[in-house]
Amino acid sequence: MENVIIIGTGPAGYTAAIYTARADLSPLVLTGSQPGGQLTTTTDVENFPGFPDGVMGPELMQKMQQQAERFGARVQNSVEVTSVEQNEDKSFTVNAKQVFGAETMSWNTKTVIIASGASARYLGLPGEMDLVKGGAGLTACATCDGAFYRDVPVAVVGGGDTAAEEATFLTKFASKVYLIHRRDELRASKVMAQRALDNPKIEPVWNSTVTEYLLDDNGRIRGVQLENTVDGSSSELAVEGVFMAIGHNPNSTFLSDALVDKDESGYLLQIPGKTATKTPGIFAAGDIADTVYRQGITAAGQGCAAALEAEHYIAAL
């Protein structure tokens, strides 16, 4: 019987692993299909405390893993959780499968910390994820990467509150922000939309979708190919960065509604002021439950909180 199983290995998962390992709970950490989470797709991370010169996203996650393992955390690589079940004795069974293979496995545990995060939505264009992982000008986090695009034109794809907010934020750095939307008006709230459209640095590109990323000789984005959704015409737009703002998909489909409550988008609902869910012994931390901040440091803070709550829960058994 495990004391703690942590599902996910972003800042929330690894911080939970560090704290539970230092509490001598010997946590088992299941990496999922994207070890290290979204930060592994980010090149330079300049806003995580303790790294005055910045740090590469994959390096930061590797350091967190090493720190957790130093205190006794066990990391199970290349396994993806398929379900979590509660047993009659109120313990849990976590079922998983190999990411690259057919082998299945399961573990019994007293507590589960869900830190499986959320995946940014992209357009599904050829070579898209290579551009994200390579730091070649495509990202889904203006707060993380906006400062790398000083005095150059960029584009934001989307039409909701997030898109309007990201576009407004990017005006602090970029020379021009094109807001590309498939319709002729934003879906954002009236206040948020008006704030963006009133900004002289933001230019809406209505009735348009991105059909191709145009690259320079170094493989970096130099522009996008657009298609007009009304007349089907094509055009090119010169930008050096593209920020995707069409939402996120929480990685929560493996969890049943009997165990956890979710909002309409699938994000886990925590007990107010806690990381605990409606089922005692199951805790949620990081982007799987955070629809507001979505930052590495806030995820790490929730991972710490979930670990402390899990420790107290186990002590009371």
Entry keywords:
317 residues, alpha/beta, FAD/NAD(P)-binding domain, 7 helices, 19 strands, 24% helix, 29% strand, FAD, thioredoxin-disulfide reductase (NADPH) activity, NADP, redox-active center, disulfide bond
Protein architecture, described:
The structure is a single chain. This protein is of the alpha/beta class. The chain has seven helices and 19 strands. It has helices spanning 11-22, 57-70, 128-133, 142-145, 161-170, 190-198, 296-315, and strands at 2-7, 28-30, 44-45, 55-56, 74-76, 79-86, 92-98, 104-114, 118-120, 138-139, 153-157, 176-180, 202-205, 208-215, 221-228, 234-237, 241-244, 248-250, 282-284. 24% of the residues lie in helices and 29% in strands. The strands form five sheets. Strands 1, 2, 5, 6, 7, 8 and 19 form a seven-stranded mixed sheet that branches. Strands 10-17-11-12-13 form a five-stranded parallel sheet. α1 runs parallel beside α2 (57-70).
SSE layout and pairing:
Blueprint lengths: L1 E6 L3 H12 L5 E3 L13 E2 L9 E2 H14 L3 E3 L2 E8 L5 E7 L5 E11 L3 E3 L7 H6 L4 E2 L2 H4 L7 E5 L3 H10 L5 E5 L9 H9 L3 E4 L2 E8 L5 E8 L5 E4 L3 E4 L3 E3 L31 E3 L11 H20 L2
Helix pairs in contact: 1-2, 1-7, 5-6
**SSE sequence, one letter per element:** EHEEEHEEEEEHEHEHEHEEEEEEEH
Helix content: 10-25%
Beginning-to-end CA distance, first to last residue: 14 Å
SS strand fraction: 25-35%
Shape: elongated
Estimated structural class? alpha/beta
CATH class of the largest domain: Alpha Beta
Would you identify the CATH H-level superfamily of the largest domain?
FAD/NAD(P)-binding domain
Radius of gyration over C-alpha positions, nearest whole angstrom:
21 Å
* Overall structural domain count: 2
